[in-house]
Amino acid sequence: MSLVIKNLTKQYNKEKTGLSDYSITIEKGILGLLGPNGAGKSTLMKIIATISKPTRGTLFLDGQDIVNNPDYIRRIMGYLPQDFGVYPNLNAYEFLEYIAALKGVGGAGLRKRIDMLLEGVNLTADAKRPIGSYSGGMKQRIGIAQALLNDPKVLIFDEPTVGLDPEERVRFRQLISDLADDCIIILSSHIVSDIETIADEVAIMKNGMLLDKAIQPEIIGHVDGKVFETMLENSDLHAFKAKHLIINTTRQKEKTKVRYITKTPESETASTPVSATLEDAYLFLTHNNA
Ligand SMILES: Nc1ncnc2c1ncn2[C@@H]1O[C@H](COP(=O)(O)OP(=O)(O)O)[C@@H](O)[C@H]1O
Ligand SMILES: [Mg+2]
């Protein structure tokens, strides 16, 4: 399976560009879209889900043009929108039956499939309660279940882990990993840790553009050997910030521990090299292309 996207532009209006000349090829496995708010992640996902049309550009899934033939992907796709609204008066079971009807999923296996999905997202015990009474995390989980109803081959999850507690995140990761072998799975987040534990490949986005897409070690390679830690006097912090890209700071009484990225560490600051993480690379890439 492959989804080939070329020169995609989404111009919302004169001032607002969602995506500009965006090209990417997505294969089987889990791709994490990582970018700050406004980067264009939801715009890209809406266009792939055929909810929104591009201003320019092409999308081909296994050679089929899905801009002009959206049904080709709709039949085999599951989509969790970022602003997932639910029907507050339906219970989880009724809601999934309703979505199944919309998607044209039916037949003898439907009951079993709904039970299995409710189990998978840990909602079996609450399946008879109206969704309106659910917590944010529970609503998110019913959203995940509806995306999986039609046994999709292309899964698009826009900020799926928002509202999930750590245990629910682990569950989500397991659910997704089990599907990854023969599906294209695209997840978005603006939180690095959400993506790094789950994605095979990462696409870093900013300002409607793709900054890089690669497996995690390659993305991290951008900052290998450039990440350091040092202890600074609090009074020196300001001047230091002007010279280097600061990843984070931890105050310890009069001194501050600083993690930073540089090509040339200053010897007088007694810096220690540390191993680079996806977060370091993400901040480096999105900072450089401000
Ligand atoms: N319906 C819309 N009308 C106008 N501008 C929009 C609309 N949706 C998104 N945008 C703009 O497009 C850009 C990308 O937004 P979005 O795709 O939602 O980014 P992300 O999901 O990465 O936060 C932002 O500048 C946003 O303000
Ligand atoms: Mg978004």
TrEMBL record:
PANTHER family: ABC TRANSPORTER, ATP-BINDING PROTEIN (PTHR43335:SF2). Keywords: ATP-binding, Nucleotide-binding, Transport. InterPro entries: AAA+_ATPase, ABC_transporter-like_ATP-bd, ABC_transporter-like_CS, P-loop_NTPase. Signal peptide: none annotated. Gene3D superfamilies: P-loop containing nucleotide triphosphate hydrolases (3.40.50.300). This is ABC transporter domain-containing protein. Pfam families: ABC_tran. GO terms for molecular function: ATP binding; ATP hydrolysis activity. CDD domains: ABC_drug_resistance_like (cd03264). It comes from Mucilaginibacter polytrichastri. Residues 3-232 form the ABC transporter domain. The lineage of its organism: Bacteria, Pseudomonadati, Bacteroidota, Sphingobacteriia, Sphingobacteriales. Belongs to the ABC transporter superfamily.
